């Protein structure tokens, strides 16, 4: 199957694509959750999933900072309270702001939105979500921010 890209797009209110994530969103700087807006939700989508992941983290599978499933399949601002939070890599639910090891260099934080043709059951980890629901991804999009300590 080919790539799942067409019109779906995601943007962050607090930073430009490829730009630095503000300190206030970091774990040590206030841990405020970012605000994302989605456009181009495809016909046939029954829900959206939002995942923020750092592949540069010095862990075998990187570090998932946020996973939210069951979001309404509509254009506009994403309201995390409208979905169900899955676990992040710290074993918690909810936003876990950037906190890369000091001196480890620039980390890239991929905020993925997935438009799905089926509902996600339960609150899987990011890996479990992809294993179970990859075939239901109608489209996906991302915005990347950077952070360094």
Automatic annotation (TrEMBL):
InterPro entries: PEBP, PEBP-like_sf, YbhB_YbcL/LppC-like. CDD domains: PEBP_bact_arch. It holds the Pfam family PBP. PANTHER family: PEBP (PHOSPHATIDYLETHANOLAMINE-BINDING PROTEIN) FAMILY PROTEIN (PTHR30289:SF1), UNCHARACTERIZED PROTEIN YBCL-RELATED (PTHR30289). Belongs to the UPF0098 family. This is PEBP family protein. The lineage of its organism: Bacteria, Bacillati, Actinomycetota, Actinomycetes, Micrococcales.
